[in-house]
C-alpha cells in the first residue's frame, strides 16, 4: 500500500508537472509565434528602409531642383532691385538738379515783370517825348511856314 501511495503520489506529481510543462509549452509556443511575427516585421524593415531611402532621395532631388529655381528667381529679383535702385538714384539726382534750377530761376518771372514795367515806363516816356518833339516840330513847321508866307508877302 505504501508503494501504491507513493506511486500515486509520484504519478499525480508527474501529471501536475506534465500539465505545467504543457502550459509552459503552450506559453512558449505563443511567445515563439510572437517572436516569429516580430521577426517577420523585422525582415520587412530593410525593404521598407530601402523604399524610404529611395523616396527620400527623390524628394531631395526634387527639393534641390526647386531650391535652385528659387535661387535663380531670387537672383533675378535682386538684379531687378539693383536696376531699380540705380534708376531711383538717377531720379534723385534729377530731382536735386531740378530743385537747383528752380531755385536759380525762381525769380525769373519776377525779373521779367520788372523788365516789362520798366520797358512800359520807358516806352511811355519815349512816346511822350516823341509826342512833345512832334508837337514842337509841328509848331516849328507852322512857324516856318508862317514866316515863309510872310516873307513872300513882303517881297
UniProtKB/TrEMBL annotation:
Alphabetized SUPFAM superfamilies for the sequence: Prefoldin
Official protein name in the record: Uncharacterized protein
Amino acid at each position: 500500500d505504501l508503494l501504491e501511495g507513493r506511486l500515486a503520489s509520484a504519478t499525480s506529481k508527474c501529471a501536475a508537472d506534465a500539465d505545467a510543462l504543457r502550459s509552459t509549452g503552450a506559453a512558449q509556443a505563443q511567445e515563439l509565434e510572437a517572436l516569429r511575427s516580430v521577426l517577420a516585421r523585422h525582415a520587412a524593415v530593410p525593404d521598407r528602409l530601402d523604399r524610404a531611402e529611395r523616396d527620400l532621395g527623390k524628394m531631395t532631388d526634387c527639393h534641390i531642383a526647386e531650391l535652385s529655381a528659387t535661387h535663380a528667381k531670387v537672383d533675378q529679383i535682386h538684379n531687378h532691385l539693383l536696376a531699380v535702385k540705380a534708376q531711383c538714384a538717377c531720379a534723385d539726382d534729377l530731382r536735386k538738379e531740378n530743385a537747383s534750377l528752380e531755385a536759380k530761376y525762381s525769380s525769373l518771372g519776377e525779373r521779367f515783370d520788372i523788365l516789362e514795367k520798366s520797358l512800359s515806363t520807358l516806352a511811355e516816356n519815349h512816346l511822350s517825348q516823341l509826342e512833345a518833339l512832334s508837337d514842337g516840330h509841328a509848331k516849328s513847321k507852322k512857324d516856318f511856314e508862317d514866316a515863309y508866307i510872310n516873307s513872300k508877302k513882303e517881297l
